[in-house]
Amino acid sequence: MESVVSWNRTLSVVGGRRLVVVLGVLYVGLATGLALTELTVGTPLGNVFITSLLIAGPGAVLLYGGYRVPTFDIDPVFYTTIAGWCLSGFAAMIAVLVVYSLQPGEVVDELSTILILTALATVAGFASGIYDAKAKTRTRELEARNRELQATQTELEETVTRLEEVNRKLSESNQRLEHHQAYTDRVLNAIDDIFYVLDPDGTLHRWNESLCEITGYSDSDVASMTALDFIDSNDHERVTSAIAEGFETGSVQLEATLRTSAGEQLPYEFAASRVETPGGEPALAGIGRDVSERMARERELERRASQQQVVADLGQLALETDDLDELMHDASRQVATVLDTDYAKVLDLDDAGEELLLRQGVGWDDGLVGTATVAAVEANSQAAYTLKQDRPIVVEDLETDGRFSGPALLTDHDVRSGISTIIGPVDDPWGILATHDTEPKRFTDEDVSFVQSVANVLAETIERQQYRTDLEDLVVDLEESNKRLEQFAYAASHDLQEPLRMVSSYLQLIERRYGDELDDDGQEFLAFAVDGSERMREMIDGLLQYSRVETQGDPFEPVDLEAVLEDVRKNLQMKIDEHGAEITVEDLPRVEGDDGQLRQVFQNLLSNAIEYSGEQSPRVHVSAERDGTTWTVSVADNGIGIDPDEQDRIFEVFQRLHSRETHSGTGIGLALCERIIERHGGEIWVDSEPGEGATFSFTLPAVGAASDRETGVRSV
Q: 406 pLDDT exceeds 90?
């Protein structure tokens, strides 16, 4: 609880609206920076544009939304709620990505993908925050009204108490009250509310002028009437019971419908206390107060709260379901229910912008939903008129509305009134949300805002699904592109093998037959050519291995890394002895992987550690540490180290930091290691400073429920 309070206090200091704007600016900035970076490395412009749009688009929504928050009828105290939802959406997506990346063989490590998903999740959180903040604002208004009602109740109780005190004094001073009857009448007649005194049989013993003014009955009429004559017949039983309760308990309070002489019915609240008449007889004295305005305000607040709850529920459903038609049907049903209308519909605009399909709706004749269409360009069509406007269209009576007269879908169903609004942006609408009634009807501004809010939920859901579809298509395209690149690399390197063998064979033949006839320069040139062909062969072999990591690898199975390392040590024994290398190894685990490929990783890393040891004897330490279902294996050396600015470049194909005169190699070994580790669902990196050695680390999935080995160090 303290952490939540602290977090809310932090958001309040930073400013919820400011934080939303900052998030929008951040995503727009990141999209711009990423686009510049991708263009620099030669990424196709189309890919850069799509990626930037998927990141900058949500950023722009956050930026604009943060700027427009003050216009959303939200109490500023709940701006932090909106910011909290944004951060929750961001954190939820980060958690999903982390959980997804923990699965064997799965990883999301592309910065652009992470930015796109977190941006979309943050926008979804922003939408939920808007609805949550609106709901909380309405709740706060209701709470304020409840406090006002409680204050009114207290005032009424105090009034009743004062009346009881007055009646007690009246009973004690009957003689004096008789002399001051005229004065008392003036006081009671000055009260705007109804004052009355009832006998046990319900007849009125006394009343003030307000009773006659409000009900329209004369004093002579009232004198011949009972309390029930002023009350609607549906409330007679309750009023009779209340009168009996008042005489029995000493006080009573209830609400009932007051009926006037003109037949008008008014909601009234009555409160009375038992008193004694000057003659010593029991009576009920009380006040009746008109509560029409209070009840109207309560109904309006309840209506608005119901509308906000529907929007919040639809927003939650939009996050939980992938079925857009289910959401549209539920939205239509909820709108019709809350606004008490006969029809509601969602119209889907076709690609040509000429026709609208009745995609979902309630109240319409059987068979129309999914088949009926409305012209999007017809002059007398309310739908066509709506598409041309930048605000919701309200119709109070279609028969007298001069803007349009149809279409047939409305007139055939006797529609007289309704609200219609665009779903999506005005310049590129997806369709229309509308609700209609068969009677002329007035709609409040809150009703119109409610329909617009539901349309916004639908628009955001449609946009989110389009984003997701585009993203899925992009992933498929990237996978196909990678597959084609792998096939090309394999084919190119494989086809180079034969001409290279021919070149190498003829160079060797020249060296054997004519080597003695060549001068020193000729022999040097020939040696360069032989060496070059050999290095090209090594590079082609490396490229073949690199391109076949995915296609030629063995299925994953439990692999004992200690056995793998032992085989590698044997393969490198001559190099170890030549350099006087010392290799120490902690207990290594069993992992899920490809035995042959993991052997290649260890061989490349150990060979590099020995090769780049500098002038001192190589010392290499291999260790492993478990984190949940993942092992992190590290190979540390005491060599020449790597400049931090070069640490990313060394994992690229054919990238070398040193000349071949100082260090041999093709420049593909670390790129091959990275490709193998990525196939295993892990990642590889290096921590190093020049002259301080280097530590290469990579992650691998653990074997099922294999138990951890005890940690120990031994010398090899």
A: no
